Amino acid sequence: MPIHEPRTNVELRRVLRKADPAIQRDAELFWRRERLLPRDANIGERLEELCMAGYDGDRLIELSTARIRYIDFLGVKIAMVRICNRVRQTTESAGDGDASKVARNP
Q: Which residue numbers in the chain have pLDDT < 70?
């Protein structure tokens, strides 16, 4: 008997240190669609930080990045992790990218 039964159909794909052009394209579109990138964001740098991608079918709905840095005064490497999920949609037809149909949680 498994310890954990998944409650979704999300397929997690490990992308850490893998240059997968399809996932990188999906990641950039995801960040832009969800308005997660600041104007001055370096896309190339952010793509190098990709860790995991979660797909529901062929649509990217979850993404994580990690920035690994050496913290001199501690003498250790530490990872700063970002995790983002697609915004919950109010209707089944909201998947067409129309932001006016998307419900944002406060």
A: 1-7, 88-106
Taking only the tens place, the pLDDT of each residue in 35-58 is 888 889 899 999 999 999 999 889
To the nearest 10°, report the CA torsion of 25, 83, 97, 41.
-60
Q: How many residues does the chain have?
A: 106
Rounded distance between C-alpha atoms, residue 48 and residue 36, angstroms: 16
What token pair was written down for 104? 């944002």
Q: Tokens 């969800």 map to which residue?
A: 34
Strand partners, 85: 62
CA 14 to the chain's CA centroid: 11
- Phi then psi for residue 47, to 5 deg, are -65, -35
Q: Give the residue carrying structure tokens 């190339």.
A: 44
Rounded CA Rg of the chain = 16
